[in-house]
Each structure stands twice: as structure tokens, then as C-alpha cells.
């Protein structure tokens, strides 16, 4: 649905896509509070709400590169930090609403909130200018982020061919650095939600931590996550050229921290884990769009980012249930989930290293080509001047 969100922006406009997302997600929640059939929830909640939230989330991140130039990394960090902030603020609030009004009424109230708040925000989005659809090659190399949506293959209000806009750019899969990047993202996202989803149950049943303290671990993780996203946004704004290295190193540290949690035996050891994992997660989510932008380039960013988000949907969906079934069947020790998650993060960081090397090689080739062309353009007038001088001396 992330690819669908990008294509809807191409065919219609950003505001229209966001309004459609608000209607689908709000309607999905309202219908969820009404239906009685369990399998109907797969459709009204899984499809309506899932697609609707994708139509709301994806364009907002993609558009940051069009609106913000100098502080694009910082604004990306602030934008993605808002989701973690929502987890801190809304989880206790929604829990209170459920206690007071019941689950169905609480879901219905959330659906109405989606319809009104998201719908009003969609009307306030600044449209793109039609006069900034072209930029020079030199500008693209100097600042990818400032033009990630400026050419005609991106989110604009220009006229497009409907069929072409819904065609996937399969040439992206010819790039080995992008394919390896997709594989790394699928592996790491298989493991990404495993510790968070199963952490409370693991703390209460295996370490005999009280349910209140166990659930508070998620709040600690969310707060640390907010700080991490803003800090990484500031760091990258200062060392933009080392973006992929920072992302790779943070992914590796996330794996190491998760593996070491296998030996956690107390509440405070888990607190240390969620603080470290939440902070490092600030790079994993906050920098993902920027890393994709660097790898695929400005021209293919919208499609590359959409394909990437679509590809990681399956591992995100199947990872936690598989670990849950393994824990229920007693196939492995419960704490093994930390080792599995950490190992996949480490493998992903190794794959990102290959992507980084190939990316640097491509940049070196492009820079060499540009330098050669610039030198040729500079030498050409000199040659003409020498010819004119020779003609003048001969005739005199």
C-alpha cells in the first residue's frame, strides 16, 4: 500500500491522497467497532485501516524532502519522532477511554478522530509549485534532499498519464545496491518488532516483573525512541556525507544490544535494554527515507521508497507471530528471541556495508564523468582562442 500511496499522489495530489487515507482509516475503525464477525475484521480493520494509514503516513515522509532543504535531516527526525510521542501520550489516554467507555466505543471514537483530525490536516498541506520540476545535474549531486520530489516522476500537480503513473519502475531491481538494501531491510524488519511485542509477556512470565512495571517498559522505549530520532536527525544534518555509515553502525549496535539481552535477569537490565534499543531505533526509522534517497537517487526516490516499504510489510507481519508460536510450542527458550532479532540486525548491517561500497563506487564514477565534462567545456573556448590568434598572426 506504500507504493499505492505514492502512485495516488502522482495521479491526483498529496491533499487528495491524505483525505482518502483519512476517510479509509476512519471508516475502517468505525466499522471495526460495529462488525461482529471475526473474519470481517480482516477486511474492515486490516484492509481499510491498514491502507488508510499508509495513505496518511507515506506521503508525509516523502514530502519533507520537497518542503525542507537545508534542515531536511532534522525535520525528518522530528516528523518520525511524532509517532513515538503519540505512543507515549495516546496509549494511557486510550486505555482510560477503554476503561470508561468500553472497547467498542473507544474504537469508534478513534475512528471519528481519524476522520476529523486527519481530514482537516490534509486540507492544510502546502501544494507543490509547478515551476520547480526541473533542476540541473550539479544541483542533484550537491543536494539530493532539496529536490527529492521536484522532477516530473514525483508528487506534483502536473498532468500525468494515468497508466504510466501506475507502472512500477522495474529498472530499480537492476541495481545491485538497491536489491541488497531491500534484502537487508526485509531481514531487519522481520526482527524489528519481535522484542517490543513480546517484551511485556516475557518480563511478566519469565522474570516475574509486575504487569505495571512491565508495561511501563514500552513507555520508556517510546521516550528513548523520541530522543534518538531527534538526535540522529541533528547528527546527520552535520555529517550528511556519512549517512549510510551512521545507519549501518547503529543497526549493528542494535543487534549487539539485543543479543546481550539474552543474559538479562532483572527489571533494570530490561530497562537498560529498552533505553539503548529505543535510542538506536531512532536511526532505523528516522533515517530510513534519507538512506533510500541516497541509494536510489532523487529521480527514483518516490518509487524506491514505496517499493521498500511494501517489501518490508510481509516480514513485519510474520515475524512476531512466528516467534509467538515458537514460544507457545516450547521449541526454544523465550529469551532466544533476543538472539534471533540481534543476529538479523547484525546480518543486515553487513549487507548494508556492501550497499555502501557500491554506492560510493557509483558516486565516484558520476563525479569523474562530471569533472571530465567540465574540463572539456573549459578547454573548448581556449582552443578556439588559440586558433583565432594563429589566424591573426598569419594574416598580419
Automatic annotation (TrEMBL):
The chain crosses the membrane at residues 12-34, 40-64, 76-100, 106-125, 178-200, 212-232, 244-264, 270-293, 305-323, 335-354. The keyword Membrane applies. Gene3D superfamilies: MFS general substrate transporter like domains. One of its GO terms (molecular function) is transmembrane transporter activity. Keywords: Membrane, Transmembrane, Transmembrane helix. It comes from the Eukaryota. The keyword Protease does not apply. It holds the Pfam family MFS_1. This is Monocarboxylate transporter. It comes from Clytia hemisphaerica. The lineage of its organism: Eukaryota, Metazoa, Cnidaria, Hydrozoa, Hydroidolina.
